[in-house]
Amino acid sequence: MSEMLKVAVLGARGRMGTAAVAAIEGAPDMELVAALGRSDPLDTLVEKGAQVVVDLTVPTSTEANVRFAVEHGIHAVVGTTGWDAARLASLEKLLAGRPETGVLIAPNFALGSVLATRFAQQAARYFDSVEIIELHHPRKVDAPSGTALRTAQLVAKARADAGVPAAPDATETTLVGARGARVSGIPVHSVRLAGLVAHQEVLLGSEGEQLTIRHDSFNHDSFMPGVLLGVRTVSNRPGLTVGLDGYLDLEG
Amino acid sequence: MSEMLKVAVLGARGRMGTAAVAAIEGAPDMELVAALGRSDPLDTLVEKGAQVVVDLTVPTSTEANVRFAVEHGIHAVVGTTGWDAARLASLEKLLAGRPETGVLIAPNFALGSVLATRFAQQAARYFDSVEIIELHHPRKVDAPSGTALRTAQLVAKARADAGVPAAPDATETTLVGARGARVSGIPVHSVRLAGLVAHQEVLLGSEGEQLTIRHDSFNHDSFMPGVLLGVRTVSNRPGLTVGLDGYLDLEG
Amino acid sequence: MSEMLKVAVLGARGRMGTAAVAAIEGAPDMELVAALGRSDPLDTLVEKGAQVVVDLTVPTSTEANVRFAVEHGIHAVVGTTGWDAARLASLEKLLAGRPETGVLIAPNFALGSVLATRFAQQAARYFDSVEIIELHHPRKVDAPSGTALRTAQLVAKARADAGVPAAPDATETTLVGARGARVSGIPVHSVRLAGLVAHQEVLLGSEGEQLTIRHDSFNHDSFMPGVLLGVRTVSNRPGLTVGLDGYLDLEG
Amino acid sequence: MSEMLKVAVLGARGRMGTAAVAAIEGAPDMELVAALGRSDPLDTLVEKGAQVVVDLTVPTSTEANVRFAVEHGIHAVVGTTGWDAARLASLEKLLAGRPETGVLIAPNFALGSVLATRFAQQAARYFDSVEIIELHHPRKVDAPSGTALRTAQLVAKARADAGVPAAPDATETTLVGARGARVSGIPVHSVRLAGLVAHQEVLLGSEGEQLTIRHDSFNHDSFMPGVLLGVRTVSNRPGLTVGLDGYLDLEG
């Protein structure tokens, strides 16, 4: 067996961080060399010889963390939000001078969710109709969900690029809201139901057939396989990758 | 084996009528004695000795047909729409003088749909949240469907009668339509998708669990078992019954 | 507002017991007067004036607990297994001398699951075909699940009582197991999938239509509404009731 | 607008052929130049100037039909079964001498089904568990379905290639058949239900999440978009292509 991969976690006391620490400790090919909280010095990463750092901190500190890692030749897997175009451009410039170092910035580590979005996008041009139903717990404050908005936009773009006409719809009389919200022309329906966690269905239909792509997220453990995949892959993908789907092998 | 039940069909050339004629001819305990179209005389029912007549005509002729049947002691199973409160009251008065004759007026003969609505109504008071998703072919002109409207109203009444508070919903920011139409306070979502026929899901949720009642109608054959059940039962149910669920034995 | 209902929990340190304690403390119409573990004396129930006791202990102690309660005029809601015919008969004899005291023994407190089984049973006679799919986490040691076995038996009995013929099935060539296990003649399919908790679908079909009744249990919180319903109802149902469905109002 | 594509159908009197004739006549970019039955001469294809021929005949005549087309520079889209390795090798040799001519041999023209299989195959390596449920009308004589067998084999191969261990399964006591049939190690469950047509679900699960890919085939119209896609694409894909997925653009 080859040597263990030395991994550090930043934001190790948060909910995601705690789960990541446990997942890395449980991975047979990884060694957790540091689990740092807010006030711990970044120099520890160098002292402990970390090869990959997992950043699960907050928008105000993630950029400095990642830049420190890249400057010290440590690959980074980043689940923190707050990376706008300016930050990404600045990071790419830094990485240009560090051609051997890789950074993955992923807004979503749930493999199933990433795959579901990709499949919906690929299938969208081959069907007459597409609609999205997302279902969440009733404590959620926004509707539709961010994932549903993004899925609708990607699906709409795929259909536009392929020249697919608008889905047929003969609705004449309707109650306000019955046909959902329109996101880039795609109907999106948001269900809020006690007992649920986070679920999404993309329904695609043509005469005589239906294709349904459904993802259910039951708890936060669902993010860990994606984090581990990122940690295992990042050293072989120099430069900046945005989105976990860039690491997936979908050649089938 | 007992004698065959003598059954006649009115509106026998229409789509539903044609299917009913075939179903009755295929039933081992029934004999089709008449299959009448628009211009055929009702006296034929008497001449042929019909015991039960199935009316699948049009709103303008159904009342006269049923009154003729009752006046001649023939039981009636009616799938035609157009029976408002005045017509029903008038029919009940007529039936009061014919205590041995039964009439079933059913807006929906799909057993599965009738059962799904009943179950949703029974379960509604036991869950924190209820929402309805109905899915139809894109040639449908109204949204929500009539069945969804009726289901929402019955569900809402069951919850009100049991004193159930409104479902929790923390939504603060939303796109118009995302949370569906409100029908008696119940969110109803209408999907229109090429390839579909007629489908409905009632989702009920409480902390930790979900109950889903789904009905799929794939084609019009789904109405025939309900029609046959009506024909077999009507002679044992004197007076007026509205709704096929009145004939179902749900004591289980 | 009326007085609070005084409730005690036996087995209060177990997983179910801990959840029950929290649920009772959170109920606006209940006061938790005792939360007893294995070695705590039952006399505490009397001292604290408990009106209802919730027994969530183990098969070896549940009978003595319930008998103690009944002898002291305390109603009992029992979620512990181990009540065979002999124990039930003995308890009924004891209750005969205590006509004002009620006991509910419920193998399943998940309202959704209880309703799903009841609805499947009621609908079974109205469809040509019925099959059951149950889906659980892969740590489960038995297949099919106990709930699926019981559902299949009840469904089969309902069909037999109504004289429904066997479901059509033209299968000639098959791999062993493809068509599931036969439980009282009903095909039952058991899925074991990482990520799942406890789920069951009853599929009912006739020409042109399908009715699906699905229950999802996401976590143990799903049992608490049923426990609270039992606590609130037991004092109005003297004698022995087996099964939470005996407390449900399904007249809708 | 460019010129119309001249298309001929062989096997035009069969069920699939009849549907193909209608679909081609309805396509705005195609002209149906011949619709031939069993005894019609193939020379008609040349006389009418067919550019693409759709073969929907029988295993005993499809090879001769396709060879005739290729020899006359006519592209062919083939839905007939019976193409074994020897026939395919012989056809490839013929095509080598006709580098401008394309042939598509597709066992399945339902776009949704082809996509569902592809997606299942791509996702299989990223989840701990995979199971397949296929649901069909009760007149089907084989279980599992051919599509389910093929999906299971492709899914199993994808997991083996990626070194994924067997799915977890703690089942100790089981009724025969409950856990389905094993196809290359993947559990496959076959439901036969009155009212259904042809449906398949691939369930993929890991800790905390589930991905479900479902395809519903409601009637034979579902094959026509795939046939039209084949007709439109075949002239740009010289040589032999097996499987409609070879024509799909899944780069998304």
UniProtKB/TrEMBL annotation, chains A, B, C, D:
Binding-site residues for NAD(+), renumbered to this chain: 11-16, 79-81, 106-109
InterPro entries per the UniProt record, alphabetical: DapB_C, DapB_N, DapB_N_CS, DHDPR_bac, NAD(P)-bd_dom_sf
Record's protein name: 4-hydroxy-tetrahydrodipicolinate reductase
Active site: 136 (proton donor/acceptor), 140 (proton donor)
Binding, (S)-2,3,4,5-tetrahydrodipicolinate: 137, 146-147
Keyword field: Amino-acid biosynthesis, Cytoplasm, Diaminopimelate biosynthesis, Lysine biosynthesis, NAD, NADP, Oxidoreductase
Protein's GO biological process: diaminopimelate biosynthetic process; lysine biosynthetic process via diaminopimelate
Similarity-based family: Belongs to the DapB family.
